[in-house]
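Researcher: Let's run the pair from yesterday's discussion. Sequence first, then tokens, for each.
Model: Starting with the first of the pair.
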Amino acid sequence: MACLLAGTSALHAANIDVTDDRGVTVSLPQSPQRIVSVLPSLTETVCELGQCHRLVGVDRYSNHPASVRSLKQVGGGIDPNIEAIVALKPDVVLMATSSRGVQRLESLGVKVLAMEPRSSADAQRVMGKLGQLLEVPDAQRIWRAIDAGVSAAAQSLPPGARSLRVYYEVSAGGYAAGTGSFIGEMMARLGVQNIIDPAQGPFPRINPEYVVRANPDLIMIGSRNVQGLELRPGWRNIRALRDKRVCVFTADESDVLVRPGPRMAEAARLMARCITEKGVR
């Protein structure tokens, strides 16, 4: 009987319990070997932890590293293909808390870990949680290397960068990076001033007139959104456009910049290069 109880105790201790961003604790009998990820930043974090081989499916936007492009695509966060996900027989599905598929998958008996990093602290926490899930003991060491890369990018900038007032447009429709977003936090670490009022939240939709009134020195924007920038009412006279101080990031660069995960040091270097080349005079 004692041996039986000891065996039962050992089995129980082998369970992996991870609490996600909903406060829901997901319990697995062992570290998952078949994973579906429906958020690019989570896909990249799994791979940064050296566990890309466990991924069996990803969302349509997951494109880094290159190896994930050959995996089965299962829709996106807004429109996940539930049938395709279930057919892959995953041990766990990694999704954003805002994804519409979380409850449906759970109702079908699929384990879901819902996490949605919005800040640098979130990205660090998510890496720690996934390290726990995947039994990667040095997850925080990996994070420290990323954070050191961001610091190095900040230290590379000249003192003149600190006077720059910057507008970062994240996506079409005038959605900006606010001070509370991971992009806004990175801007602060690089020493520039964000024109967005903190009260407007992490990713507010900004009226074009707001940007005209703020008159930023530098604009950062992706190539997908830059078309017609000077045709926006009043924008032709914005200091950044008048002085040709606009950084247009390629689609691949924008992917790096808008994903709070393991490529944040690379994102910091991209922003630092923009500030050096276009901002500092």
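Model: Moving on to the second of the pair.
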Amino acid sequence: MAPRRLGFWPRFAVVLVKPVLTVWTRRTWRGMEHLRRDGGVIIVPNHISHADPLVSAHFIHDAGRWPQFLGKASVFRVPVVGWILHRCRQIPVERGSVEAVKSLDKLIAALDEGGAVVIYPEGTTTREPDLWPMRGKTGAARLALATGAPVIPVAMVGPERMFDPRTARIGLRPRIPVTVVAGPPVDLGRWAGATPTRAILEEMTDTIMLRIRDLVAEIRGGTPPPLWQRPARTGTPEVSE
């Protein structure tokens, strides 16, 4: 959905934010053709920095799509801020409550309207010490199973130089190099029509995260590690090859 069709507030957001990012970053964009498609898409980036939404939004906008991010519903209830977020077509999501089902309905509606919905499968910035992807949560897989929308993996390297979550250090120098690469849709065909059991959703999520991890490795080079997960109570991290 192009910003020119969305009205004043999305255009205002672009005018406000894009010039800052143009100065702040030196960009390498690849794989935009995978986003230049009609209809709804689920975009799943890795999450390495609080600057990620700015960089991924810039990339998605440059690819000709309007990014629709998920946000905590409480933020949408903040005066003025919530009003602007609604006008910019962002999506409130309730977490940890029965309202989560209604949130899924909102995501499905956004995809039915041809939206480019952005979901960070890890749910938070990665805790892997070298910022490789973690194992993900199942929201993106559940949405893909419910809608059949293509899942587009996106790998980013560089936003951690803008804000490093490990040190909380902000990089303010201009032209920080950032690389964003989108890949072809993740092949989830073998689960089409499957019942969304926890086991099925976790298998799909691991498949999505491994594809994102491999894209990250293409940028960084070297052999990627297994997907990392927060340490269990025994103190031993769980991994997925």
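Researcher: Give me one sentence on the second I can quote.
Model: The chain is about 35% helix and 20% strand.
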